[in-house]
Structures are given as C-alpha cells and as structure tokens.
Write a structure and sequence with these properties.
alpha+beta; six-stranded antiparallel beta barrel; disordered C terminus
C-alpha cells in the first residue's frame, strides 16, 4: 500500500479535526428532554418531560443523570400517551432493547443525526478529499460493532517472507511505538 500523500499545504491533524467536526454536526447544542420515568427496561420504554419532543424513527441518544452511562444511536420506536411523552426505544434496526445499564431516571435524551446519514457522509468525504490526495471511502462504526479495515499490503511485499521481514524490521525499529506510518494504523498485527 503506498502511503497516501497529503495535498499541498495540508496537515494530517486536519483529518482528526474533520472527524470531530462531523461529530459536532451530528450532535445538538443541548439535550432535548429529561427522562421523568422509566416505564420498562425490557422492552425499553421511557417517559420524558416535554410533550411531543420526539417522533417515530428519530435517532436519539440517552444519558444517565451522572453522565457515566446510557446508550447512543438508537431510534424512537413508538410514541404513546395523549401528550406524546412516552416512547419505546429501539435499536437502529427497530428491534426492542433489553436495557441493563445504569439507571436512566432523571437522565437526558437528545435527538442526534445518524452518523450514516448520506448528507453528513458526503460532506465529510468532500472535506477529507480536499486534505488527502486519494479517493476516500468512509465507514461509520455502530455502537455495538467493531469496524476493522484490513489494509492493502505494504509496498514491495509480494510473499509471506517479504511480509515477515517487513514486520520484523518495523518491530525492531519501532522502539515501543504502536503506530505505523505507512499502514496509518494505531495497532499493527500482534502489537500489545
């Protein structure tokens, strides 16, 4: 894999800043409602303090009052009650959630943008392609998944022996670093 070059005058830190910028676009400036009751944890149903704050299929995030727990990237599955204050919370695939985390009572709920939103991804792709001299392919993690990208083989590696020599040379010269510039990876096969 040849190292991707930055465009003239661009810095690698701009990539991280772009990712943080995307998160900021996905999040609201403040929470939308407070959880006034937990009706049930299986399936997860909550009551909020603001009438009609959410509609079916809104992407939301819930946080505990002490800010140490909660769930993110879930959907409103159903809104019930005359005031529209009670909602069933489902995963992004609309399956019921069996919540076993920290207590949600007095926590907060926010409307958030789905990180797989086409407009958000297109905008981020455009920004990143202005920084690097390569085509960018974006993949967003889901909160319950681990996204692993198998990089292309390093430049000049065509046999197993080449790969072992390459990794051996890297580990011998890495001096404890677990970042590989050419593979652009914070963890390289077998590093601890």
């Amino acid at each position: 894999m040849p190292k991707v070059k930055l465009k003239q005058g661009r810095q690698a830190q701009e990539i991280g800043a772009s990712l943080v910028g995307a998160w900021l676009k996905a999040l609201p400036p403040a929470f939308t409602a407070t959880i006034s009751a937990v009706v049930s944890t299986s399936p997860l149903r909550i009551t909020v303090d603001i009438p009609n704050a959410f509609t079916l299929n809104d992407v939301i995030a819930l946080r505990t009052e002490d800010k140490t727990g909660g769930i993110r990237s879930v959907r409103v599955g159903q809104v019930t009650g005359a005031t529209g204050k009670t909602i069933r919370v489902v995963d992004l695939g609309s399956a019921n959630i069996d919540y076993k985390g920290k207590p949600l009572l007095n926590g907060v709920v926010s409307k958030v943008k789905d990180l797989n939103d086409t407009a958000l991804l297109n905008e981020l792709e455009i920004v990143l392609e202005q920084i690097v001299d390569a085509k960018v392919k974006l993949v967003c993690d889901a909160p319950t998944e681990l996204t692993v990208v198998l990089p292309a083989l390093p430049e000049g590696v065509v046999t197993r022996e080449d790969l072992l020599d390459y990794l051996g040379a890297y580990h011998n010269n890495a001096q404890g670093r677990h970042y590989h510039e050419e593979l652009a990876s914070a963890v390289l096969f077998g590093c601890r």
